Amino acid sequence: LKVRVVRSSPPSSQFKATFQESYQVYKRYQMVIHKDPPDKPTINQVRLVPVSFEDPQFKSSFNQSASLFAKYQMSVHKDTPSDCGENEFTRFLCDSPLEAEHAPNGPECGYGSFHQQYWLDGKIIAVGVIDILPYCVSSVYLYYDPDFSFLSLGVYSALR
Fold this sequence. Notes:
The chain is built from 4 helices and 4 strands; from the N terminus they run H-E-H-H-E-E-E-H. It has 160 residues and is of the alpha+beta class. The protein is globular, with a radius of gyration of 18 Å. It holds the Pfam family ATE_C.
């Protein structure tokens, strides 16, 4: 087994030379493991959404995220329904002391608190709550649909 680190951005000559082969492996993986049809688009399966009730993506996915949080907490941590309602979800994972900031030399998404949503077949199956800061990314919490625990989404999220 040989492992190479190939710069993808900006694309190196190695990246360009192996792009089609890498893409074909990715496409086959998606079809075999996730049962994707050969022509299924895969863009937007992971979304980085700012934690802000002003953000349309955050607002539109809030109920689904809160429901997934409750399912996770009750299944994995054996919380009662009253321990993981919308108010508890908001207090624990949406209210943040960080303020959003867009620095000229910073990342395109800016700095602040984000929900990194993992989508599969139009449904959120995991959410990584992260803070993006000038010199680090801090993983605050991760919750996932217990029906997908076989995917080891916590490990995947940490590596991502």
